[in-house]
């Protein structure tokens, strides 16, 4: 009886432990492109879009090396809505045309409104994938910074013109 209870407790704890572990690798959104955009708006995250083909060796290598990698998964799962499309079929072919994809793999980082933020062609390795993510995340911050700076410069120039009496 004791052995049966111990075995039952062990099975329960082991099963619970297995279910508590986060999924290994990059998790890709399952659904349509419009649903992925909606999810990105809901989560206020950019989209990482992997545009691949089945015959592309670098695409297969990236799927084998980078997507299962813990560091890549941690960064991409936390910071992006990840989406994958085969550029030769259905919605994938339409998206490849929309974003002017001509080589594979093409990695696109897209704002929740569908605006292209960054494009990279080819597989750059695990460190390259991490760097691409950092760059894509920095670009909107840079745009906000530059926009703020441009507004500040315009305000300063207008103020200077007013003070010197040069305003039309």
From TrEMBL:
The keyword Thylakoid does not apply. InterPro entries: AGR/TXD, Thioredoxin-like_fold, Thioredoxin-like_sf, Thioredoxin_domain. Residues 15-144 form the Thioredoxin domain. PROSITE patterns: THIOREDOXIN_2. Residues 1-20 form the signal peptide. Keywords: Signal. This is Thioredoxin domain-containing protein. It comes from Spirosoma utsteinense.
